[in-house]
Amino acid sequence: MEIETFVVPDPSPDQLGEALPTEWFLQQLDEMRAALIEPYLTEIDGDGRFPRSLPKPVPRRVVIVAEDENILLAYDPDCDGDFALIFKSASGCGVSPIRGDAVDCFMSR
Fold first, then answer.
1. Is residue 30 in a domain?
2. Domain count within the chain
3. How far is CA 99 from CA 47, 80, 103, in A?
4. CB 105 within 8 A of CB 1
5. Hey, is 1 helix, strand or coil?
6. Tell me: the pLDDT tens digits for 19-47?
7. Can you tell me the distance from the alpha carbon of 70 to that of 66, in angstroms, rounded to the nearest whole number?
8. For the segment 78-109, what is each residue's pLDDT rounded down to a tens digit?
9. Structural contact between residues 22 and 30, judged by C-beta atoms closer than 8 angstroms
10. Domain that holds residue 80
């Protein structure tokens, strides 16, 4: 899914609480546009999906496409070809297990 083709989702019948207003989604899209950068390749430890399944994370190469303070949006060119969030901290980078298309991943931050 791309920014320009994003459609505000209808509330789920199983949703708890109030639905997010359309304005929230529009603000998120504006924030994503502002966070887009010239993509660059970097290496991270692991992929976030199986944090405890391996004794030592396997390094992998991802493409960083957006930066929002200490949160990066990365394209992972693995067999699924999806996006993931990377959280930067003083101790290094942590990969979120939340994966999917670029817009949904960015909005989940």
1. no
2. 1
3. 10, 10, 11
4. no
5. coil
6. 899 999 999 999 999 999 999 998 887 65
7. 11
8. 767 789 999 887 777 778 888 899 999 999 98
9. no
10. 40-50+58-109
